[in-house]
Amino acid sequence: MTSGGSNTKETVLEIDLNALAHNYRYLTSKLNPGTKVMAIVKAFGYGSDAVQAAEELARLGVDYFAVAYVNEGVALRDAGIETPVLVLHPQPDNFEILIDRCLEPTLYSNRIFKAFVSAAEEKAQENYPVHIKFNTGLNRLGFLDTDIDWIVENLVRTKTVKAVSLFSHLAASEDIQEREFTLQQINQFRRISEEVIQKLGYSPLLHQSNTSAIINYPEANFDMVRTGIGLYGYGNSEVEDKHLKPVATLKSVISQIHEIEPGETVGYNRAYRAKGHEKTATIPLGHADGISRQLGNEIGSVLIHGKKIPIIGNVCMDMLMVNVTGVDCKEGDEVIILGENQTAVELAEAMGSISYELLTAISQRVKRVICRKTPC
Description:
This protein has 376 residues and is of the alpha/beta class.
């Protein structure tokens, strides 16, 4: 682990744990007293490093972690993470290892509920913690309110499992134009939870808020909130982004510089043609590293010595080329692809996408460098 940024000699993803800590403290400052926090570390910690992120967040006192799949939870356990881990989308084939590694499943349908109870019974479990998910409008996973009686009946009849939380997922909490729909989801989840608790006879934790809801709907804190993208430096609004710090900085170097003549072409399919005497730089980073081909042909850019430089031609599998005409640079100089001065939001918007996709697309072949460069 380094104490500051790396002296870049190759393509690396710098992961600033101090930035992660800053974001955690900022987001928790928005919460009602006593509200628990579930940190989302799925997809390699939104493209960073799930284990390093989880270790830092555990040190900061996070109450729960959440991952998408069982193997992601296993990786946390293998690294010595003991904090409770919710698996958001488990499959029956993985229930045995889920139980063996003390992970906690989301039960979202009759099939999954029955299959998990059966697996837990085979392993002689008692009061194994499970999380019941309700669909309040995202229409992706979850029980409906019409399933409440079935859920309660099946929870009461077994001592094998116990509901430790009830939760739902907001569809558009970042979009002010969808405020009415979001409030409808919040109110529906409140009604469902009250009915379940009344019929069940005990009170599981309630959670529905994601990062945007933490900021926009404080009335929906309930007992716990879930935060993912905000931890990694993005708040789904320009205003909130100013309070957050990007955790990941993707850097590379100039491998080679070419002087090209007017009319010469660059890259596959001769997609770029020089308009005059130009200078190009080749960078060891391509679509196999997560830089989409959509960013080619002057859609995306990189930073060299603080100047925004357009990507030219088609992005290759392992390389991309940029136009450095008029830029004072040399082979071996540092290149910034995304970070504080060119954010994942800016680059994603250029290709018609979102920061989530760009961050999580960064390939695992890109070397991760852990640092603490943001002042705490």
